[in-house]
Structure formats: C-alpha cells, structure tokens
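tool_call: predict_structure(chain=1)
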Amino acid sequence: MQPTAISEHWVARPAQLTAADFHAQLGQAPFALLHGAGRWIIHGEDPLLVLEEPDGLDLQFERTGELPPIFPDFIGFVGYEYARHLEPLLPAPLPGAFAFPEFHFVLHGRVQIFDRATGTLFEARRTGPRQELANRHLLGGGAFTARKREDSDSPGQYGAKVAYIREEIAAGNVYQVNLTRRERWHYRGDLRSFARRLAAADPAPHSAFLAGPDFAVVSASPETFVRIDRGRITTRPIKGTAPRSLDPAEDAALAQGLLASAKNRAELAMITDLLRNDLTRVCQVPSVRVDSFPVLESYARVHHLVATLSGELRPGLSLKELLRATFPGGSITGCPKLAAMTLIRELEAQPRCVYTGALGWFSHDLAQLDLAVAIRTAWASEQELWFGVGGGIVWDSEPDDEYRETVHKGASLVRCLN
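tool_result:
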C-alpha cells in the first residue's frame, strides 16, 4: 500500500512576535497553539487529517523552501485513559461528562513556527488528502465569566483517600500513588480570554491552547513528559511542591525547605527510578542515565523539584512502542505503575481526560518529539470546564498538607477563571 503523500512549502522572514500576537490571530476554525516559555511558538490551523491512533497513518512528506529546524507535523494530545489500550490489565475507565477524545493529533494545512532565539517566522502551506472535518470550533464570543459548580472531593474526602493510600503502602501494595481531584466550572463567553489570562499569569514551559469542534484544552504545564531530538530521549519528572511568597526572604526559605525535604526528595527518587526503568524499555543498553537530581525550578505560583533522565533510543521505534513503554508518565501515576493506576481507578470517580495525559507535537518519522505532562490543564465542552490538581501520596504524607498542595497547584487556574 502506497504511503499518503503530503507536500509542504516553507518560507521564512524576520519577525518580532509574542504569544499574545498569536492569540490575537486565532479565528473561528479549529486550531492548535503551543506557546511555552522555551524557544518555539507553534501555531496550526486548517486541519487536514486527525490521527486517532498512534499507528493510524503512513505518510510521506515532500518539503521545499526555507525549512525550519523542527517539524511539528502532528499537534495534539493523548488522554490519560488511553493507557487502557496500551496495558490490557488496566480496568476500564468510568464514563466522562462528555465524549472527550482519548487520542487526538492533527496534521494542519497551515503551520507557523516562530523561533524566539533568532527572531524568525517560518510559515508553511500543506497539501494532501483531506478528511471530512468540521471547520468551526466551540469557542464562543463575548465577555468571559465563570463560576465553580462542584469539587470532586472536599478536604475531608481527599484526606480520607490519602489515609487509604497510606494503608495500601503499609500493606506493601504500592509505594506512591498520584491522587488527584477535579473542579467543575460553568462559563460563558470566549474561552480565548481565559487562555490569554492564564498565559500572562502563569507562563510555563509547555503552555498550550487547542480548540476542536466540540472541545477545548488550555494548559500551563511546567513538566516535560518526553522529548526526542537527534536520537536521544529525555524526560523531566516533577515531584515536590512548595508555594511562592511575595516576600523574597520567605520565598527563599520556602525554596530551601523544599530542597531539604526528605519526603519530597524520596518522592522524586521513587519516580526517577520508575522512569529509568521505562526508558530502558525503548533505549539502547546501557545508555540510560540520570543527568540531574534534584534541581529546584521556580514558577509563578510554586517551586518544584525536578530530575532529568535521558538515553539513546533504539532505531526504528514506533510511536505506539514509545507510548506502551512510557505512558502515562510515572510522576502522575505512582509506583509500581500498574498497581498505582488500578488504585487511582478505584479512588477517582471521574476520568482524567487530557489531564495527566500528554500534550505537544511530533514529526511523522518520530525523529523529533516534544510532549508535556498535561498538568495545570483545563478541558472544556460548550459552557462547562474542568481542571484537575493532585500530588504524590507516600507513607509520610499528611492529609491536610496534601490537600493544601492541590490548592497551591490550582491557584493560577482559579485566579484566571475568577
């Protein structure tokens, strides 16, 4: 069977642009905008194809013109519940409030890539087979307002779940479980206003805004799930959180307290070991290494502890093989991963959808890939919006502290919704 042919022509020109400039040009058709704090801003519109499985298309690209350094051929996300297609022993997820895609990556007919490092805008038009897709998204107009409808867990309910996980740890069934709760909000008006607020209030390495015919995703994620470049794969798990303070001395004390926390370092060590094992399944032996552990990173509302792991990929790896070995990220499951995810299914009454899945882009040949863990992430249908917050529960976890940590993590989302 012949591969599907895609033609694209690139032009490049000098430009001085910001994420706000890209937000301003978002129209009425479905789009994807990745505008994190790193080197690239990536904008796609005019969908040609939607990939709903990791091995669903065989493509051949013909690229001409002034080519960019990266090729974000597919932009989109993998929802947390897609893991059940990769691991048959996982229990089936509960139904969600609306039909949200589990795997959704789009090949766009028009692509813009802005290189902040060189001040260069690359633009491409793609031609090729076109699926029958809706040409409008769900984003409305008018002033944006929102009000909270419900929490999945009260502080007491969340604390009881923390206590139950500690019992499972004492029994030797798990070592760490990432427990999350969800908030449901009703909104009116244009979600683009909310997305702009969040981008300004909480600039993050993996900020994103995606709009489809019947869903939208707004993210300010700080966490790298996996990145592939020149045959090397990198992951950067986050474990350990402390709030920021406006007082510089207090803020420094909070940061140093996090670095010195035996509990938080132990959380990160467990997940680092789990991810080292995950990477070994797709990397050449013995190339997997821990590049840094731990590093303090500070964001608008919180401090985090971060580790970095990397390895040399085995040649010929497929996207499905990569996901089967690494998805979902261990930092948002716990360990052992299968046991932790089974317990999550027991304790969390609603599906996570895109939250704690993976969001970003990859080239069709998997030579380049950049996916974030979709935390600090909201997902929406028409007039309803959800977001999730959570943390890793270990034996030393205190229920009240764990609930307060979720409040700190969701603070930027709540401020922008209000």
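agent: Residues 262-280 form the longest helix (19 residues). Proceeding to next step.
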